[in-house]
Every structure is written in structure tokens, then in C-alpha cells.
Specification:
The chain has 353 residues and is an alpha+beta fold. 36% of the residues are buried. The longest helix is centred in the middle third of the chain and has 12 residues, at 183-194. It folds into 3 domains: 3-97, Structural Genomics Hypothetical 15.5 Kd Protein In mrcA-pckA Intergenic Region, Chain A; 103-183, Pseudouridine synthase, CATH 3.30.2350.10; 201-318 and 344-349, Pseudouridine synthase, CATH 3.30.2350. Helices cover 19% and strands 26% of the residues. The strands form 3 sheets. Strands 6, 7, 8, 9, 10, 13, 14, 15 and 16 form a 9-stranded mixed sheet that branches. The protein has a 5-stranded antiparallel sheet with strand order 1-2-5-3-4. Helix 6 packs antiparallel against helix 7. The chain has 7 helices and 16 strands.
């Protein structure tokens, strides 16, 4: 659709000009995707990059920052300049996103467990130890490389090294994630994630006992000032993060827990349980491999040592995934059994798979 054929109404404060079809946020102008916002009173004072990443489905804060630096974001008709620029009430923010760059990741014949696939998407039960997409230190041998081999085409809006990726799992977290094969599906799934309509449930084993058998951990998360590879709870500068949990069973010195994400921040479950003093068993980055002997009995120390000997990663598994399929117009639910190492830990501590 050419620009001269578009009639773009002026948005009201807080409103975004959306596409003719709601699964395509924005409008298409000469192969570029356009979004237009008017900042309302509630959002005045927020950084431009955070404001836009919270409102444009499928675009991370990092990608928005790149768009700002490339001059693709205008505020009242002038380039935003810096990602940290502070927005004022009633400012007009225009974003034009360039079309995706050609995919550079190469197909590789890596065994993966494809639970389901059709012409629009695939659901994968990712094994622990597999990185989701290429990054510094992991240029290939990733899930993206495997998907390009087994599935062929993937959506482009994830970026040139992250085609098809709608959401991620940490390298050493196992379980379910959905991958888009075309841009329409990617936008739709990303929009569901942004509106918290995708249900993601995990199983984990943590040290100690939660205060309540069910509840929530509501604490903002951001990048650690002291270690940029880690995340931490930051009361003043973190992004909202919400985790729901219910205890399935207790096997001293551990609890077996079902977790549901309210938000999807990087390392969220691991950070939240660490913040609560209930470290995810086996987690080397967030305190899960340390035996705190002073608080344990001799039998509990023996069980803990045995548990750590049978798992070399965090005991965290994405067990259930629910989303609305845009092509089939219905909700789909997927479950993945616990992997062998997780089952071995349960056997050691006295539980059953």
C-alpha cells in the first residue's frame, strides 16, 4: 500500500494508530511499518525506548534503541536522538520500522523435538544446553539453526539472527516455546505476549520452603549494575515482573513447585526465587548450587549432595504452553514431560515424575 492511499487519523492521547487488521499493528508505508502515538499524562516522564518497547509487539527495547539511533523515531517531527530522551505529555511519536534484513543464520542438522508444526508456526520442546539464537560466543549450533534446517522459512521480524523467535528460554532451561514461520503469525503471537494472553507454566525445584503454599512474587527486574550478564531485583529502575507459584510437594530440603509467568523478563523465575531466598536447585548463577549446611540436617545434606550430582543445570522446565493460534482461530495447549535429569532429581529427593 502506497502512502498516498493512506488516511491516517490523528491519534488521541495515549492512542496508537493501528492497522486495518488488528493482527498487524501499525500501517505499511513503502515496505516500512509505521506506528504513531500521542503521549498521555500517565506516560509523561518515561524514556522513549521503554515507552515504545512496551507498545510495539515483537520489538525488544534493544531493537527500539537501534531504531532511535538510526533516525527511525521522530518526536514532534524531529529525530528522537537518544533512547533515553524523556517524553512529555501530548508529544507525537512516529516510528517507521525498516523491513527485516536477510536471514544470515545457516540451517544446521541438529536434532530437536518438534512437538507440533503447521504452515504458520512450530512448537518445540527445547533440550537443556541448546542456545535459542546466535549471539556472541554462540555463532551457530543454536535452535534457530536447527529450525531453519527442519522447518525452512521462519518469520523475519525477529531480526537477522533471530528469525521466528517470539519468546526465549535460557540455554539451560528445557521445555516448550513457540516459533513463528511468517510475519503475520509473529506479530499476532508477540501481541498476545505483550497483552499477557500467552500462558506459560514451569516446573522447578527450589531450596527450602516458601512462606505460603501458593502466592506471587512481584518485584521489578533489571540488569545487575555489578555484573551485566546477570539480572537482579531493582526496586527503582527495574521493569515490572510478576511470578505466580503453587507448591506441588515438599521434600526437605527442597520444594517441588509449579510456576506461572505474569510477565516474561530475562531470567525472571531464577531471579525471583533467588530474591525470595529460595534458590532454584542447580542454578550456578543465582545461588542454586551452594549447600547451606548450617541450616540442614545430616540427612538433608546427603540428599542435597546427591541431587546436585544428577543435574548440572538449573532444575527449571517449561512444562505447559497455551496460546491462540491466529491461523486456526482457536486456543492451543501443549505439554512437555519432564526431562530425564529433572526426573532423576525428583527420584533422589523422594518425589515421582
Amino acid at each position: 500500500m502506497k502512502a498516498e492511499n493512506l488516511i491516517i487519523p490523528a491519534p488521541l492521547p495515549g492512542q496508537v494508530i493501528e492497522a486495518v487488521q488488528p493482527v498487524f499493528p501499525g500501517v505499511i508505508v513503502d515496505d516500512r511499518r509505521r506506528y504513531e502515538f500521542i503521549v498521555d499524562e500517565e506516560d509523561a516522564g518515561e524514556r522513549a525506548d521503554r515507552y515504545l518497547s512496551d507498545r510495539i509487539p515483537g520489538f525488544s527495547r534493544t531493537r527500539i534503541q537501534k531504531a532511535i539511533k538510526a533516525g527511525d523515531v521522530l518526536i514532534d517531527g524531529k529525530p528522537a536522538g537518544k533512547p533515553a530522551v524523556i517524553l512529555r505529555e501530548e508529544q507525537r511519536v512516529l516510528v517507521e520500522i525498516s523491513p527485516p534484513k536477510p536471514i544470515k543464520a545457516a540451517p544446521q542438522n541438529i536434532d530437536i523435538d518438534i512437538v507440533y508444526q503447521d504452515e504458520d508456526l512450530a512448537v518445540v520442546n527445547k533440550q537443556a544446553g541448546l542456545v535459542v539464537h546466535p549471539a556472541p560466543g554462540n555463532p551457530d549450533g543454536t535452535l534457530v539453526n536447527a529450525l531453519l534446517y527442519h522447518c525452512g522459512n521462519l518469520s523475519g521480524i525477529g531480526g537477522e539472527i533471530r528469525p521466528g523467535i517470539v519468546h526465549r528460554l535460557d540455554k539451560n532451561t528445557s521445555g516448550l516455546l513457540v516459533v513463528a514461520k511468517n510475519d503475520r503469525t509473529h506479530y499476532h503471537l508477540s501481541d498476545q505476549l505483550a497483552r499477557r494472553k500467552v500462558k506459560r507454566e514451569y516446573r522447578t525445584i527450589v531450596w527450602g520452603r516458601m512462606k505460603d503454599m501458593e502466592g506471587e512474587i512481584n518485584a521489578p527486574i533489571g540488569r545487575s549494575p555489578s555484573n551485566r550478564k546477570k539480572m537482579t531485583v531493582l526496586e527503582s529502575r527495574g521493569r515490572d515482573a510478576l511470578t505466580y507459584y503453587n507448591v506441588i510437594d515438599t521434600f526437605p530440603p527442597f520444594q517441588y513447585i509449579n510456576v506461572r509467568l505474569g510477565t516474561g523478563r530475562t531470567h525472571q523465575i531464577r531471579v525471583h526465587f533467588s530474591y525470595a531466598g529460595r534458590f532454584v536447585l542447580g542454578d550456578p548463577e543465582y545461588g542454586g548450587r551452594k549447600i547451606r549446611r548450617g541450616s540442614l540436617s545430616a540427612d538433608e545434606i546427603r540428599i542435597a549432595e546427591k541431587a546436585l550430582s544428577v543435574i548440572d543445570r538449573q532444575a527449571l522446565h517449561a512444562a505447559r504452553l497455551t496460546f491462540y493460534h491466529p491461523g486456526k482461530s482457536r486456543e492451543m495447549v501443549f505439554s512437555a514431560p519432564l526431562p530425564d535429569d529433572f526426573g532423576s532429581v525428583l527420584s533422589v529427593i523422594g518425589g515421582t515424575v
